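Ticket #357: bound-state structure for thymidine-5'-triphosphate.
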Amino acid sequence: MGEKRRIIFHVDMDHFYTAVEEREHPVLKGQPVIVGADPKEGRGRGVVLTCNYEARKFDIRSGMPISRAWKIIPEAVYLRPNFELYIRVSNEIMSILRAHSVKFEQWGIDEAFLDVTSTAKDDAEAEHLAQQIKNQIYDNQKLTCSIGVGPNKLVAKIASDYEKPDGLTIVEDQKTEAFLAPLPVRKLLWVGRKTEQKLANMGIKSIGDLAHSDAAMLTESFGVAGTQFYLMAHGIDRSEVEERSQIKSISRETTFEEDTSDLELASGVLNELAAELAKDVQDRGYHFRAITFRIRYENFETHTHGKTLPAVTDRLQDLRKTANELLHTHAKLDKKIRLVGLRVSNLVSLKEQKTLF
Ligand code: TTP
Ligand code: MG
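RESOLUTION: The complex was predicted; output attached.
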């Protein structure tokens, strides 16, 4: 195809949240540890965010209801997440990684892609560099990671998952299709449970099955995604490693139909704005730490008042509480209110953004 061959790394920290907890509290080592919602002796709502490999032996998984985890291993150590800590550690790891490559792309809290084409001239040099990075992260952070090396992001990402934890998997360009063929289709990005089921009904289970199926038929069944599946099954992915521009803040505001001096009314509107904003933030997989309240009076005089929370959150109740505090502390009672608004910033992304691939 005449394109320059690339060497891409995907680095993924091992059982990230629980690994950080174990490092901070060595007494946890060797025990099954689960970070997530409060299990409340089996009555808890919410899910497992992650668990260490001891807990995985019992088939505990990310996203599983915490009540189910409790049924399986009530004797595990259950911890609430400390996002502040994880984000700090994540930032330290990302700055180590960033230094190794001109083309760098963070992907979620504990993963990143590096394009090392200009640093490593062949697979042997790539292996040496990957080992060096693993050692450096361990020496610096006392945490292990898994690295996948491949000709593109798709293959590198699947490779990093191949021999977790503490893995290093190198997929040579010519061996890409052979590497992918035996793996279940679920390993491909974009293939969720529904697609997996639909493909299974068509007799397609492995990536190899997918590669040998009819491209036109896939397009007919899945639209554009079908074409994408076919290319991915052949290990083709031309997307670049590039730092994505992050949105800095998300906001909502409402102008009253009629200027008002009714603080209760303003508070009600603020609560609605908070609900919309919290949903937006949660849908995008963000947490926030800073909240800004904006108020405009009948004479167009406009003020903003901000507060930084002690920790990141995505909870509506935190947003509402702060918004109302700011309203009641700062609203001038001698002027009618024309508009109120809310903005959240200091955003951090805590979930994988698969749809952006
Ligand atoms: P992952 O890298 O998917 O998982 P992990 O690092 O815990 O385990 P692995 O060794 O398999 O890589 O996610 C990174 C962190 O993101 C994880 O520690 C917790 C968090 N997370 C969630 O909050 N919700 C989720 O559904 C998943 C999958 C992860
Ligand atoms: Mg991980």
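RESOLUTION NOTES: The chain has a mean pLDDT of 92.
TICKET STATUS: resolved
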